[in-house]
Amino acid sequence: MSLLDEIEAAIPSLRRYAHALMRDRDAADDLVQDSLERALSRRHLWRGDGPVRAWMFRILLNLHRDGLRQAPRRHLVAVESLPKEPAGPERQEAHMDLREVQAAIGRLPDDQRRALLLVALEGMSLAEAATLLDIPEGTLVSRLGRARAALREMTGRTAPQKKEGRA
User: What is the pLDDT of residue 80?
Assistant: First the structure.
């Protein structure tokens, strides 16, 4: 598969991650577009040492960080619109639970949100996500733990209780 084919194959994952990261569809699409432009204009710099997908995610994350540094801090509360579902008590409750979790993820600190989305949404291994974020694996595990604990607290859910063994 050529470099351009691999870049094209990464687009759906980049869009999904950017939408979850930005919580604003238009801004996320702009970020993905900027990432693609950067990758294509600098494809001669691609060393071929690792997955193209990881390289693309690194470009996207770097552009996102640059944008956060340059722009005044925005606190977006908007949640990505969810697909319409038939009404019903159980569906409405699940829909509300999902919106609550999405809003809570949006309130996480950037470093925790980035880590959680790479592992939970994109399904990356701890090693892949740590490499992409340029942090030690132990730091990633700590961020994931703090993010999950914060989500449980923000959504009013408690951590699973460990069952005591019988003697």
Answer: 46
Cβ neighbors of 6 (< 8 A, separation 6 or more) are: 51, 52, 53
Question: How does pLDDT run across 52-90, given as a tens digit for each residue?
Answer: 999 999 999 999 888 877 765 544 434 444 444 445 555
Q: Domain extents for the chain?
A: 1-78, 82-158
Residue pair 80/19 in contact by the 8 Å Cβ criterion: yes
Quick one: CA dihedral 63, 67, 68, 74, positive or negative?
Answer: negative
The Cα 101–Cα 50 span in angstroms is 33
The CATH architecture of the domain made up of 82-158 is: Orthogonal Bundle (1.10)
Express each pLDDT in 126-157 by its tens digit.
Answer: 999 999 999 999 999 999 999 999 988 988 87
* Second-level CATH architecture of 1-78: Orthogonal Bundle (1.10)
